[in-house]
């Protein structure tokens, strides 16, 4: 999607060089956000899934797990194991690359370009590299962007 900052509820990125956007329906919205200022000094989680067929399903999660109440946009969080910024991905082969899993390697960054508490809009960009040593899967996420109303 285009890089916007008006709460258009969009998310997309290149997954290993191929475009990835939420798609399909499996009983819930394929793109959702949870923003809670009352937990860990402010957190956000954006969840998206893509269902192309019964055997081709992937899921993406972008999270900031602490301290949003103390941040003023623009700001960048660098991603590594145990950091407050997180990217997670579940592949179609059912390999989960989750931020809280100690068997994964992750690096990257999340930049919040807009955090408007009055209009309830958060938007930004992200990139990262995720690796799960148990599955041997490496996921490269580039040119990621989101624009969400919470």
For this structure, the quaternary state is single chain
Approximate shape: globular
- Count of discrete alpha- or pi-helical segments spanning 4 or more residues: 0
Unreliable spans are: none
Strand content: over 45%
Nearest-integer average pLDDT? 91
SSE ordering: EEEEEEEEEEE
What's the gist of this structure?
With 150 residues, the protein is mainly beta.
Write the layout of secondary structure elements.
Blueprint (H helix, E strand, L loop, with lengths): L9 E6 L2 E3 L10 E6 L6 E11 L2 E9 L10 E5 L5 E6 L5 E2 L6 E13 L4 E12 L4 E13 L1
Antiparallel strand pairs: 1-2, 1-11, 3-4, 4-5, 5-7, 6-9, 7-8, 9-10, 10-11
Describe this structure in words.
The chain has a six-stranded antiparallel β-sheet, with no helix packed on it. A hairpin with a 4-residue loop joins strand 9 (104-116) and strand 10. It has strands at 10-15, 18-20, 31-36, 43-53, 56-64, 75-79, 85-90, 96-97, 104-116, 121-132, 137-149. The two termini are 18 Å apart. It has no helices and eleven strands. With 150 residues, the chain is an all-beta fold.
Keyphrases for this structure?
single chain, 150 residues, mainly beta, 6-stranded antiparallel beta sheet, 5-stranded antiparallel beta sheet, 0% helix
